[in-house]
TrEMBL record:
<dbReference type="Pfam" id="PF03080">
    <property type="entry name" value="Neprosin"/>
</dbReference>
<protein>
    <recommendedName>
        <fullName>Neprosin PEP catalytic domain-containing protein</fullName>
    </recommendedName>
</protein>
<dbReference type="InterPro" id="IPR004314">
    <property type="entry name" value="Neprosin"/>
</dbReference>
<dbReference type="InterPro" id="IPR053168">
    <property type="entry name" value="Glutamic_endopeptidase"/>
</dbReference>
<feature type="domain" description="Neprosin PEP catalytic">
    <location>
        <begin position="1"/>
        <end position="128"/>
    </location>
</feature>
Length: 128
């Protein structure tokens, strides 16, 4: 479990992993995030200096449509509101720059809540 939230008293952004507070980002290092966030992103990111020609895997290296046991996923996606309560995200958009290299799918189902499958192999015959 990964949780990021803003401490209302101190204004710092805290990171909790597996129930343990790992540390925080002091509020003074932020400008746009000083009071709150207006958007939140989950997923993966690959950087290549040669504009996309990389076989670096994102996630497990499998595409989202390969599903559970193959593709990487994030489940129970929730958002902390200004009352420090968790809520399902209200408006989930998907961003992918080269969907033959890496892709993403979202859904909402049972105890998984809002989830995404994401990733891919990078360079492949359809991703030159
Ligand atoms: C935060 O979420 C809780 C639980 O859904 C809700 O009761 C509360 O009104 C929300 N607070 C704000 C400021 O939206």
């Amino acid at each position: 479990d990964i949780l990021v939230w803003k401490d209302r008293a101190g204004g710092n952004w805290w990171l909790q992993v597996g129930g343990y507070n790992v540390g925080y980002w002091p509020s003074y290092i932020f400008s746009d995030l000083a009071h709150s966030a207006s958007a939140i992103m989950w997923g993966g990111e690959i950087f290549s200096p040669d504009a996309g020609q990389t076989s670096t895997h994102m996630g497990s290296g499998h595409f989202p449509n390969e599903g559970f046991g193959k593709a990487s996923h994030i489940k129970n996606i929730q958002v902390v509101n200004s009352s420090n309560c968790l809520n399902p995200p209200s408006d989930v958009g998907l961003i992918t720059e080269r969907n033959n290299c890496y892709n993403v799918q979202t859904g909402n189902y049972g105890d998984w809540g809002t989830y995404i499958y994401y990733g891919g192999p990078g360079n492949n015959p359809n991703c030159p």
